[in-house]
Write a structure and sequence with these properties.
This is Endoribonuclease YbeY. Its main location: cytoplasm. It is a single chain. The protein has about 160 residues and is of the alpha/beta class. It has helices at about 15-30, 45-60, 75-80, 95-105, 110-125, 135-150, and strands at about 1-5, 40-45, 65-70, 85-95. It has one domain (about 1-150): Collagenase (Catalytic Domain) (3-Layer(aba) Sandwich).
Length: about 160
């Protein structure tokens, strides 16, 4: 998958390498993301920008940690032939202030939390969800945990009972 990054409002860091690592890890646990035709955009931005996107596209008047905007249905992704022109999988946006606050609350560094949110966003782009049922949520969390383990990051849900 080709990943187009835009970084604005985040501190200097290895965000591109982190994002590429998340893409590789997700491809291991979600084979549909291996298709060479796929591309996605990832915006590292501010709470204000994510707030505006959330208000415009989700009708929620608040910032959030990550937004995902899939451009393919799951069936379309699974049926996508590996030969042909590039196809846009979707867009992801991460809000710096919310991510930093959550990382501090969880006692993890910002890189670790950002990696988790990138993985989470990529899985949403691949058609996974956690909103409609506990079964879906558990399956998505298992994929996230497996992808993060490939990156050397411990289970972010490990403290749940």
């Amino acid at each position: 998958m080709q990943l187009d990054l835009d970084i604005e409002g985040w501190p200097r860091g290895g965000w591109e390498a982190l994002a590429e690592g998340a893409v590789r890890a997700c491809a291991v646990v979600e084979p549909a993301l291996v298709n060479p035709r796929l591309s996605a955009s990832l915006l590292f931005t501010t709470d204000a920008e994510v707030h505006a996107l959330n208000r415009e596209w989700r009708e929620r008047n608040k910032p959030t940690n990550v937004l995902s905007f899939p451009m393919l249905e799951r069936g379309e992704l699974l049926d996508l032939d590996p030969e042909g022109p590039p196809v846009m999988l979707g867009d992801i946006a991460l809000a710096h202030e919310t991510c930093a606050r959550e990382a501090e609350e969880k006692g993890v560094n910002l890189d670790t939390h950002a990696a988790h949110l990138i993985v989470h966003g990529l899985l949403h782009l691949a058609g996974h969800d956690h909103v409609h049922s506990d079964t879906q949520a558990e399956a998505m969390e298992a994929l996230e945990t497996a992808a993060l383990a490939k990156m050397g990051i411990s289970d972010p849900y490990g403290d749940r009972n």
